[in-house]
Structures are given as structure tokens and as C-alpha cells.
Here is the input.
Amino acid sequence: MTIQIVQGFSKTNRWLLYASFMLSPAQFASGLKNNCPSNIGFLAYNWYNQFAWYHAIQNKDMHAISLIIPHLNTIFAFTYLGGVSSGNIVIGVLLGLGTAGVIVFNTVCAWTAWAVHMPEGYGQYQFFFFGWRTLDEGWRKFFCLWQVGDSLFALIAVVAAVGIAIYVALKDEDIPWWLRYAGVPVGAAAMLLFGWPLIMWTELIMLRNDLESETDMIAVWLFVAQVGTMLVPSCGSSLACIAGGLRGRKSSSDVELGSVKS
Here is the structure.
């Protein structure tokens, strides 16, 4: 019997989710020396998904798909860092803080699902782990250990998100414009090698537990916005109004002081 779960886990939504983390290297490259908020779409897409999942967890509306959250967190602790790069220190700090926040929210969702959903799935939820397994108290302890590891990764990622954002924003190095676009398929292929177990894990859980979900169109359009902002050509220094303005005022002050001294 088909089980209807919360919207947002349809085949369309799932493959856009996979595409999103596969694009994380390209997201990082798009923000280098770029004063446009090229990663704002990536951040918005991730925050929206987390809010939707948390709401579904609270309403006990995820069924066996809640088992994928620890695996998602293992991947996302790294891939979310692709959204912190910017050529503007102010935008970079905001992206870093936003990324740190969504990583923390990820962890909260995972522990909530572990506490709320898993006990209800004993003897029902099935997943693949070197053969088909059925969730019970012993496997729940396994997921607990997994999430402890995820939480440690999340702590490191939170610090890294802010640190990398500031470091990249202050660096003067840039990459050729064509490399930003050429890196999209290359980075996606590399992330596919890294993330294919998550894709297999998710798809097998959906099939084995006979789960269906409606498409969340808000998530679809946010993904479109993510890709659109990523592919917009770099603004260079054209929007460096804050940093540039501060430097300009400092230079003017130096000139005036020099004139007075002379």
C-alpha cells in the first residue's frame, strides 16, 4: 500500500536536491571576487528545505524518509560551505552566518527526527545497509552514534563557514570567468562520486517503503533562483559600495591630510 508523506520528496524535488549539492563547488567558485550575492539563492533553497522538513518532523509526517536525515547531514556539513564565498566582506559574513545557522538547524532536525519518528518506525521502516534492515531499538542506537558524528562535523562546519567566508572575502585572488562555468560539470561530477551513496540510500528507502510525495513548487522555484544567481556574471567591484566607499573615504582623508601638511 502506497504511503503518502509530506510534499517536497517527489522525484522532481529529490533530484533537484541532489543537483543542489552537486553544484556546491560551482557555487563556491561563483562567489570568488564577486560582489553580487551569487550564493543567496543557494542559501535560500537550503533554509526553505530545512524549515519544511522541521515542520514535517514536528507533525510526524515523514515516515521512513526521516532515516535519510543523518546521511543528508553528513553530506551537507561539507556541501553547504560552497555557499559562503563572496568578494564583499559584508555579504561574505552574512553568508557565513546564514550557512552556519542552516547547519545548526540541520542538526536540530536530525535529533528531533531521531527522538520523534524512529520509535514509531520499529518493525516498519526498512532501509538498505549491506542488505535490507528493519528499524528496531538496536538500529536506532546505530543512528544515534551516526548523529553524534554528524554533530561533531556540524560544529567544525559552523566555525569553518564563518572563517572561510571572511578569508575568501579578504583575498585578492580571482579565477578566469570561463573557469567558473567550465567548473560546473567538473565539480558536479566530483560531487556525484562523493554523494552517490546518499542518492542510492534515499531512492531505495522511497521504493522499499512504498512512499509517495507531492512536488513542492516553492522548492522548485527556489532551485531555479539558486542556479540563476549562480550563473549571473560576476559584478567585479561594481557593487563593492561598502568596502569601496570606506577605502575611498580613507584615501580622501589621506589626501586632505597630506595637503594640510604640505
Observations:
- The chain has one domain: 3-261.
- The chain has nine helices and four strands.
- Confidence is low (pLDDT under 50) at residues 238-257.
